[in-house]
Amino acid sequence: MKRITKIEANEKLQKAPKKLRVAAYARVSTDSREQLVSLDAQRSHYETCIKSNPNWEYVGLYYDEGISGTSMAKRDGLLKMLDDCEAGKIDFIIIKSISRFARNTTECLEAVRKLIKLKVFIYFEKENINTGDMENELLLTIFSSLAESESISLSENEKWSIEKRFQNGTYIVASPPYGYKNEDGLMVINEDEVDVVRYIFAECLAGKGGHVIARDLNDRGIPTRRKTEWSTGTVNAILRNEKYKGDVLFQKTFTDSSFVRHINNGEKAQYYVTEHHEAIISAEDFEAAQAMIDQRSKDMKIKQGDAKYQNRYPFSGKIVCGECGATWKRRTHSESKVKYFAYACKTHIKRVDQCSMQFIRERNIEVAFLNMINKLVFSKKVLLQPLLASLKDLNQGEALARINKLDEALEDNLNKRQKITELFAKEYLEAAVFNEQNSGLLAEAKQIGDEKEALYASLAHENEHLEALNKLIKYINTVGTLKDFDETAFQEHVEYIIVFKRFEIGFVLKCGLTLRERL
């Protein structure tokens, strides 16, 4: 017979309190030696503070060095800490101040609320705020707004400082281009790369284009600084960079008030410094290379800085592979010593085993477009006009009426939020009640706003299709029978071409139709 013996539980272990797993986060704004010393001091401070509390278990210090605090997405240390919170490794976080955590109000509150849902709370030392106390959320909003203003102020001060250094020529190029390196704040020639730069310019002056030069470099097994393959863009960027003749143009780009970087097309002042550093290419050779590039662009009808380079042929960038999804490129083929143009899948060109779709002659695509237009001329009454009627019959009035109702609901929601905020400020409303009601109203406002945006997008989409269809019908009514390929009509009415099979393609029209044609 079985014998069962009960082993009593250890009451001391049952009553032993679970230690709080505590982590700390630290950040310095630059990677200077002084700031890194500050980081070491913060690391020592938090480690001592956490380990001295018998109820806490030290998880570790998460930190970022030399990273701007305006965006969480750029801070690997912070993101790793948030991931560990989601993984259940952290219960409590200590941070020096809100500005160390986030200087963007929206990001700060979103992160805090996300952590609260995970039962992970933050203590901000400077502001004496514990996110475990929900009544502090309003205070947290105020402080994070101040931190965001501080970030903007610091950014403006830094911009002013940089511009002054531009003006007096003391600005240090932090990331020298290929062929140079930074030594004690000065741009000096990198002997490991300089021969490649000279080769690129020599090949350009010999009449080779960026594509051919890039291919030659790759064939020779010469990697870029990032250990990737050369491309037409990387070669042309070197050929166009004035730094190789010893000069430098400051403020080619600028950052707007939302911390988004843009190319400077005249919005901000620029500063050109001659003889800034040792040249790799003589001024005469550099200018000769520019003349070569400009002449080649002129011959190919390319405008510098214009996207036309990728779209100088009617079908460039507009053919999509139905097998792998890649775009197709124009190539020169020959048959019996007769040359002709064709389009081929970029994936198939590089790796035949990854896409089996073979090339299509350019002339066959042009003929397919002619056939499609001529079919529409004869079938407009049974295809285009019914489609036009159905688009016109869409009840936009109901959508607009619904948008008006949503506007009224948003206004009512805002009034309610203002009212409870006034009651909370006058201490007529408890913090817990205020937070619950305010969170509910904010969620409701977001839902209303999302529905409103969806309606606007739907109306805009329908209007775009209706306008495109009207243009197509007008063109069909005036063209008669099309005998030659009309590039303007193709650009006007076709969104893109999808290749289903080598002998079947589809024209995706801007009015929403997709019409198939056999080749």
TrEMBL record:
Residues 177-299 form the Recombinase domain. It holds the Pfam family Zn_ribbon_recom. SMART domains: Resolvase. GO terms for molecular function: DNA binding; DNA strand exchange activity. Residues 21-169 form the Resolvase/invertase-type recombinase catalytic domain. InterPro entries: DNA_bind_recomb_sf (IPR038109), DNA_bind_recombinase_dom (IPR011109), Resolv_N (IPR006119), Resolvase-like_N_sf (IPR036162), SSR_resolvase (IPR050639), Zn_ribbon_recom_dom (IPR025827). This is Recombinase family protein. It comes from Pelotomaculum isophthalicicum JI.
